[in-house]
């Protein structure tokens, strides 16, 4: 990420970041929709549920190659960049950056835990709050050191991820007696329920749970997922922290903010995707040839993809800077969706759980994989249609305003006219 400088980032909103964030908030639904609509193992393994032939296999393959992990990675890069921007804005405004950051992270943790417990167990906000607290003291590192530390954390993440396929291999190959084999079979079935082909009983149990009422789902979610933020911090923390630090470096180097010449973006896109896409395609072919067996799935979805995912993320940044022309209708719609990413992310949880869970339309488990994507397109259109008109009247999305007001300990001006009047009054 060849750095022209380590200069302080100007405390201003960068529309280029909002455009990329808008793509990320739309793109992440391509993966999350599986978590909303199908039993959990289907997220990693299409053979678990929802179909793995024909159009269903194609839907899985496109997501595996282009979107799975990459949209989450884009969010993490952008979150790291926002740490720099908000700290600089706080300092420019005469406020304490440390207090501003940790107050924001504390409230984000509250939002994340509420989202996790009340709406959906796939929450990422609480995880970002915890990792963001760790990332903040590292923001002053020189750009080169941010890159080096980020890459070392990617290697550390691969080592953590490798524990899962190592456990699978050990269980499959080490059982010297009948009792040991039975114990191993039980642990293997537990892993199959997450990464492989769950038992019929596990599938039936999950279908019954999510086709039920709100209170039973709530009780089960709290019992099964209440400690998710801590578990995620251990398992995904190194990778997320790596991406936040690389996001800081990307902003400083000009990559993320759109400061590079177009030819440089083209060159980096060719280099990054020229290596990463064939690697992902080879992994996808291996998974299909193996029939999505447990060991290949855990290897491909965890440590092996972690090696090349950063290249895919950087390639996405380059592609979006090349493809989205500032001022175009699509770019402005995406920028508005990105500026309201917090609201739009939580809105998709509310919409999708209402569509698929039993207390809503009750469609959980009733669609094959490819049939979920017309619903994704409908949600995309809603986000793109409502975000820009809202921001024409208001300074923030509804939840962005609430988060900002709570973090600052005072109600913030919401309407643009109210903000203009308060600015005039303060002069």
Quick overview:
Helix content is 74%, strand content 0%.
Give your account of this protein's structure.
The protein has 427 residues and is mainly α. The chain has one domain (15-165, 211-393). It has helices spanning 15-27, 29-37, 54-66, 70-92, 97-118, 125-135, 143-161, 163-173, 178-195, 200-210, 214-225, 228-235, 237-253, 262-289, 294-323, 329-339, 341-356, 373-393, 398-408, 416-425. Residues 1-12 and 423-427 have low confidence and may be disordered. The chain crosses the membrane at residues 20-43, 49-67, 74-93, 105-134, 146-168, 241-260, 272-295, 307-324, 345-364, 370-387. It holds the Pfam family DUF418. InterPro entries: Bact_Transport_Assoc, DUF418. Residues 252-409 form the DUF418 domain.
């Amino acid at each position: 990420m060849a750095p022209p400088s380590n200069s302080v980032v100007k405390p201003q909103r960068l529309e280029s970041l909002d455009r990329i964030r808008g793509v990320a908030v739309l793109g992440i639904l391509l993966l999350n929709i599986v978590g909303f609509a199908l039993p959990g193992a289907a997220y990693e393994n299409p053979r678990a549920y929802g179909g793995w032939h024909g159009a269903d296999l194609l839907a899985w393959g496109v997501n595996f190659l282009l979107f799975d992990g990459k949209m989450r990675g884009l969010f993490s890069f952008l979150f790291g960049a926002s740490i720099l921007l908000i700290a600089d804005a706080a300092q420019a405004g005469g406020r304490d950056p440390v207090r501003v950051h940790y107050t924001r992270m504390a409230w984000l943790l509250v939002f994340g835990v509420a989202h996790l417990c009340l709406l959906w167990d796939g929450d990422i906000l609480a995880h970002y709050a915890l990792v963001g607290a760790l990332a903040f003291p590292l923001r002053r590192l020189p750009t080169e050191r941010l890159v080096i530390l980020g890459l070392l954390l990617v290697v550390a993440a691969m080592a953590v991820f490798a524990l899962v396929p190592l456990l699978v291999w050990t269980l499959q190959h080490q059982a010297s007696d009948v009792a040991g084999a039975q114990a191993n079979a039980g642990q293997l079935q537990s892993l199959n329920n997450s990464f492989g082909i769950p038992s019929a009983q596990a599938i039936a149990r999950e279908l019954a749970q999510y086709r039920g009422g709100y209170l039973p789902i709530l009780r089960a979610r709290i019992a099964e997922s209440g400690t998710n933020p801590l578990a995620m911090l251990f398992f995904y923390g190194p990778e997320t922290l790596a991406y936040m630090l690389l996001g800081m470096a990307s902003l400083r180097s000009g990559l993320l903010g759109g400061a590079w010449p177009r030819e440089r973006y083209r060159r980096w896109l060719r280099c990054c995707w020229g290596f990463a896409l064939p690697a992902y395609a080879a992994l996808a072919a291996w998974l299909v040839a193996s029939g999505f067996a447990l060991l290949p799935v855990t290897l491909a979805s965890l440590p092996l993809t972690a090696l090349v995912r950063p290249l895919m993320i950087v390639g996405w940044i380059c592609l979006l800077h090349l493809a989205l022309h500032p001022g175009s209708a699509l770019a402005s719609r995406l920028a508005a969706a990105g500026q309201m990413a917090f609201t739009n992310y939580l809105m998709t949880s509310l919409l999708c759980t209402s569509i698929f869970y039993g207390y809503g339309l009750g469609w959980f488990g009733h669609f094959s994989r490819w049939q979920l994507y017309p619903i994704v397109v409908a949600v995309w259109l809603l986000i793109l249609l409502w975000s820009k008109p809202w921001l024409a009247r208001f300074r923030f999305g509804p939840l962005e305003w609430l988060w900002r007001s709570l973090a600052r300990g005072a109600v913030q001006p919401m309407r643009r006219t109210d903000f203009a009047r308060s600015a005039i009054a303060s002069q």
